[in-house]
Structure formats: C-alpha cells, structure tokens
Amino acid sequence: MTNRIYQSLTDKKAKGEKSFAVLIDPDKVTLENVDELVRLAVDAKVDYLLVGGSLIISNQLDEVVTQIKKQTDTPIILFPGSPSQISKYADGLLYLSLISGRNAELLIGQHVISAPFVKETGLEIISTGYMVIDGGVPTTVSYISNALPIPSDKNEIAMCTAMAGEMLGMKLIYLDAGSGAKKSVTESMIEVVARKIEVPLVVGGGINTPEKAYRNCKAGADLVVVGNAIEKDSSLIREMSEAIHATAGFVASK
After folding, report:
1. What confidence tens digit (pLDDT) does each residue in 9-43 have?
2. Which residue did the predictor score with more confidence, 78 or 83?
3. Least buried of 25, 56, 88, 132, by fewest C-beta within 10 Å?
C-alpha cells in the first residue's frame, strides 16, 4: 500500500497549488458516455477522479472504474456511500468517518465490518473526517446518514469538528453540502476551518460555477470536488479546472 495520492495532495498544499476532482456517480453514467467524460477531464487536466455515490444501485462500480482506467492514468479515488462500494481496481479510497453526525455506525461501526476486506484490496487508504454541511435542501447523503447536517452559518461548530477530526488522526477534512445542494459551503466557513487545520481541506456540494470554485480555493479549499453540475453540463469541466488552477501559489493566511 502506497501513499502516492495523499503525498501528492500534501505536496500541492505545501506549494499553494489547488486541486480539482470530478466526481463520477456509477448510477448516473453509462459505460458508453463515461469515455467522453473522462476525455474531457483529461483534456482539462483534472487532478483526480472520484468515483462513488450515496446509493450505487447499478452494480457497475467495477466496470466503471476499469473503463476509466483504460482511458487515463489520472488517480481514481473511491468516494463510497457504504462499505459495499469498494472496487479493488481503483487507486485509492476515501475512508470516510462521519465526524459531523452522531451516528456511531458511520463514525466507526461500518468501518469495523469492512476493515478486513478493505485491507485486502491493496488500495491506498486515506482516512477522511467527513462533515455534512446544510446545503439548503435535504440531500441523499443527509438522509442516508440519518444525521443532521451542520448549519451553514455555524462556522465555529465546523471549525471545532474539523480540529477534533485532525487531532484524532484524520488525513483529510471534507466539507460537503451534498449532491444537488442549493447552496454550497460558505466561503467564511471554509476560511475559518482552513485556518485551524494543517491537513488538506476538501470541499464539495453545490459548486456549480467556475467563479464559485475559484472563490472556494481562495477561501482555503485545497481540493474542490464537482459532480452534479458537470453531470448537467460536462463542458464546465475545462472552465472549472482553469478557475481552480488559476489560484496556484495562493496560501490562505492562518
């Protein structure tokens, strides 16, 4: 098991470089159109490809990952909604612990069950403190997690939760407003959290314009994840990538 993906994230963070990940939901793509999506991502110099979703009902996770592998050597990172959403053909796994909620099953319970299988896959495991932030509407992730999201205006709660996650050993902190969110994580929340942690900060959910992605990076996000907006308009990939990478060299003040 290597730490190639995580090392690339920390190296970029140290240099003030921002990263862009396109989220591909196996339930929302076909094996035919995933090729075009990956081609656009490669042309736009996307840094990582996240694969996963809250449900995964199509039973084609392995097929989607292997199809992507045929097109690119861009790192493929699993973003699972449950322990069953694992493919040994990917490169890495965000091992999500829902630190924003009080559901013990998603904090540690499901990890205990999945640990032996996950270990055997040989995937690069990246422990991730996952924080669901209120995105203005009920989302699949908030429903499935059976946990209340952190209110979007409670920056201090988000800050303290992120700090606790880092001190408990999480390698990443992920602020997520959820797929289809009406509003993304606020720039003020991103800024407050970014100032108090040293590990890379991931932000996703409700990011539907290049300008919003750019501002999130300026506020302190190290990795911006976009899925739903690109599902609706794949041509946004290049504009999003250019906006995010335009912030290279910017380091948020502590």
Report:
1. 999 999 999 999 999 999 888 888 899 999 999 99
2. 78
3. 88
| Strand intervals (E) in the chain | 19-24, 48-51, 76-78, 92-98, 124-132, 172-176, 201-204, 223-226
* pLDDT exceeds cutoff 70 at 144: yes
- Check if the beta carbon of residue 99 is closer than 8 Å to that of residue 161: yes
Asked if 200 contacts 172 with a C-beta cutoff of 8 angstroms, the reply is yes
pLDDT-derived band at 142, boundaries 50, 70, 90 = confident
Domains of the chain: 4-245 (3.20.20.390)
In degrees, rounded to 5, the angle at the alpha carbon of residue 131 between the alpha carbons of residues 128 and 133 is 155
CB atoms within 10 A of CB 104: 10
Distance of alpha carbon 175 from alpha carbon 223, whole angstroms: 10
Q: Quote the CA–CA distance of 112 and 30 in Å, as a whole number.
A: 32
